[in-house]
């Protein structure tokens, strides 16, 4: 996995103050994407234990609410195996931090067993995600007044409630 960018003290990609990491690699290649450079799986720098330590160290500062993982595409199969390791560390070392993930894939179609982006660690990632923003960015549905998403087809999913109930439960942030 490669990291295109790490943004500290970010307030645009989730509630509160966040560390946001942009992973590289995306096969969705949405028209009008705001980060097309991250489509390249080699963009940025390789994800290393040192970078992971830097993320954990930054996120441990008291003013952070959580981590946001975007891209590129976090649920590309090659990215999931590294993302799950980072999430495990956060849940162990910083259990009070929340985790948001943005994906161009659709939760209940692509990220479930039998879906095109489901692998052995997908469920663990989803079980430890607080908010999932899903769906491809559709330029024709772009709406700049939406909170935390770019187009009206994208959903802000409360993953704790969704995983507990077995059906998609949207966050109140969708309103």
- Gap from first CA to last CA: 34 Å
Helix/strand order, N-terminal first: EEEHEHEHHEEH
Structural class: alpha/beta
Q: Quick check: average pLDDT?
A: 95
The biggest beta sheet, please? Answer: 7 strands, mixed
- Give the amount of beta strand, in percent: 15-25%
Q: What does the radius of gyration come to?
A: 15 Å
Q: What level of helicity do the residues show?
A: 25-40%
Enumerate how many helices there are, as a single number: 5
The count of β-strands is 7
Record the strand order, biggest sheet: 3-1-2-4-5-6-7
The dominant shape is globular
- Contiguous uncertain segments of 5+ residues: none
Write a compact overview of the structure shown.
With about 180 residues, the chain is α/β, with parallel strands linked by helices.
List keywords for this structure.
26% helix; alpha/beta; seven-stranded mixed β-sheet; 21% strand; 7 strands; single chain; 175 residues
Structure notes:
There is one protein chain. The protein has helices spanning 49-59, 77-93, 107-110, 122-127, 159-165; strands spanning 2-10, 18-23, 45-46, 66-71, 98-102, 131-134, 155-158. The radius of gyration is 15 Å and the shape is globular. The chain has 175 residues and is an alpha/beta fold. Helices cover 26% and strands 21% of the residues. The N and C termini lie far apart (34 Å). The mean pLDDT is 95. It contains five helices and seven strands, in the order E-E-E-H-E-H-E-H-H-E-E-H. It has a seven-stranded mixed β-sheet with strand order 3-1-2-4-5-6-7.
């Amino acid at each position: 996995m490669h990291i295109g960018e790490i943004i500290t003290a970010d307030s645009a990609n989730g509630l509160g103050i966040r560390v946001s990491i942009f992973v590289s690699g995306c096969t969705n290649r949405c028209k009008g994407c705001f980060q097309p450079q991250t489509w390249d799986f080699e963009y940025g720098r390789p994800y290393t234990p040192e970078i992971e330590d830097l993320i954990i160290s930054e996120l441990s500062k008291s003013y952070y609410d959580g981590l946001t993982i975007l891209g590129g595409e976090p649920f590309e199969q090659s990215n999931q195996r590294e993302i799950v390791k980072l999430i495990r560390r956060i849940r162990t070392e910083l259990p009070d931090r929340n985790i948001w993930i943005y994906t161009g894939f659709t939760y209940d179609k692509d990220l479930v067993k039998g879906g095109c982006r489901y692998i052995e660690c997908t469920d663990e990632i989803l079980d430890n995600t607080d908010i999932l923003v899903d769906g491809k960015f559709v330029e024709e549905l772009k709406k700049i007044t939406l909170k935390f998403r770019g187009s009206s087809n994208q959903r802000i999913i409360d993953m704790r409630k969704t995983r507990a109930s077995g059906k998609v439960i949207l966050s109140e942030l969708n309103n």
